[in-house]
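Pair request: fold both.
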Amino acid sequence: MAHLIAPEENLKPGQVVRAVIAGHAIAIARGKDGNVYAIDDKCSHGEISLSEGFVDKDTIECWAHSAKFSLATGEALTLPAFEPVATYEVFIEDGNIFLEYDPA
C-alpha cells in the first residue's frame, strides 16, 4: 500500500522526515546523493530515533552513539550497531514522495 509522505521539493539532500504509519515509525531520508530512502526509525543498537541523525551520501548516523547504517540496505556499517534495520520502497510520482508499506 502506497502512503503519501511529502512533496519531493520539501525533502532536500541531507534531510530526514519521520513518518508514522499504523504506529510504526519510518525515517524518510534524501541522501546527499539525491536519492530518497526509507528505513526503520529506530537504531538497532539503542532504540534511538534515526530521523534525528545525520545523513551523508547514502548513510545515516545515529546521533547518540554514532552507529552508521546504509540507507539502501539497512546494513549496520559501524559499531556499536551490528544488527541491520529494515528498509522500505519509496517512489516519486507527480512530484510527491510515496512509501510502500503494508502494516499487515
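--- second member of the pair ---
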Amino acid sequence: MEETKIKNLAAAAKRIKTAIGAGENIIVYGDTDLDGVCAAIMIGEMIKNAGGKTAAYYFPDREKEGYGITKTALEKLARLAPALLVAVDLGIGNFEEVKLARQAGFSVIIVDHHEILGGVPEADIVIDPKQPGDDYPFKFLAASGLVFKLAEEFFGADFCGNLRQSFAEMAALATIADMMPRQDDNIEIINEGLAALKRSFRPGLRAFFDTDAFFENDSRNFKSRLNKIIAVLNVRDIRNGLPAAFELLTTDSLEKSKKLIREFLEINKLRREKINVAVAEIETQIDKSAPLIFCGRRDWDLNLLGTIASILAINHNKPVFVYKILNGQVQGAARSIDGVDSVALMKKCSELLITFGGHPKASGFRAKTENLEEFKECLTKNLDKS
C-alpha cells in the first residue's frame, strides 16, 4: 500500500527543481519568528545543495508592513520578476496578495501550517495539511516540519548524513519554539533533531555551548540550555533586512557567532524588562471578572505582544488579546487556553477585522481602531456562547 503523503509535496519539489534547472530567480519569503526563519534557511539550503541559487530572502517587518505576503514586499521584489516565490510559515490567508503576485509575474508556492480561513489562495502550489483534500493524518507540523518533509521528497535517498542532520536540528528547534504538539511526526522530528543539535556543525549553534556567559547561573542541563537557545533565537529584530536569528544561523564564523550571541543576550535582557513592565501594568488594569483580557497601548513593542499575551493567558487561564495602536489601526496578538480556539473565535467577528489567522492557541489580528470596542464585545459575546 502506497504511503500517504502531504498534498502537493511532490509537485512543490518538482517545481523547485525545474526552477533551479532553468536558472529562474528564486525568492524565499518567510516570517520573522524562529519557525519562519528556520524554514526559510532550509529552503535556501535545499536550493544551494541542488546547485541552485537564491535570488533574495525577504522577511516582512511586522511593524512597518504587517504580517504575511505584503504589497510593500511585492513592490520591492518586482525587479526580480519573473521569479518563483516560495513563501514559508505565512501566506495561507493572503488571497489578494497572491493574486497580485501572480499578476506581477511571480509563480507562488506556499508552505504554511496555519488554519484555513474559507479556502486557500490561488497560488501555483499550496502545502498545508489543513487544506481541503489533504489526507495526511497528522495536521500539526510546524512550517519547518513541513519543509523537512519537503526536503525528504526533494532529495530522496540522498537526504542522509550531514545534510539530513542539518535540516533535522532546524526543524526540531522550530517545532519546539512554535509550541507544536509533541505527538506523532513531531516526536520523530524532535528526537532526531535534538540528537543532531548536540553535534551540530553550524557555528551559530555550536557557539551557544562555547559561550560562557550564555550559561551563567544556569543548571547546565540540556533542556535548560535548549530553552535558553530558543529564547535567544526568537529575537525578531530586523537587521539589514534580515531577522537576527537568520544572521546567526547562517554565518560560517564561530567568533562572529559568539559575538552575535552576546549581543542577543543583551537584547533579550531588555526585552524581558519591557515584558515585565507591560505585564505588571496590565495586571493593575484588567477586569478579573471578564471572560477575556483585551487591551492595548501605542508604545508597546509589537514583537513582544505574543510573549505578553502568553504570560497573561497562563496567569489568568483565559483568552488574551493585546495590541499595539498604530495610525488608525491596531495590530495584535492573541493567546488562548484549552477549549477555546482563538482563530475560530475571531472568525465569528471577521467583519470587524482587516486580517487575522494563526493557530487555535496562538494567533494574530489587524483591525481599524474605530472597530476595537465592537470587536471586544463580539469576542466576549461569542466566548460566552462557547
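Observation on the second member. The domain at 285-385 is CATH 3.10.310.30 (Diaminopimelate Epimerase; Chain A, domain 1).
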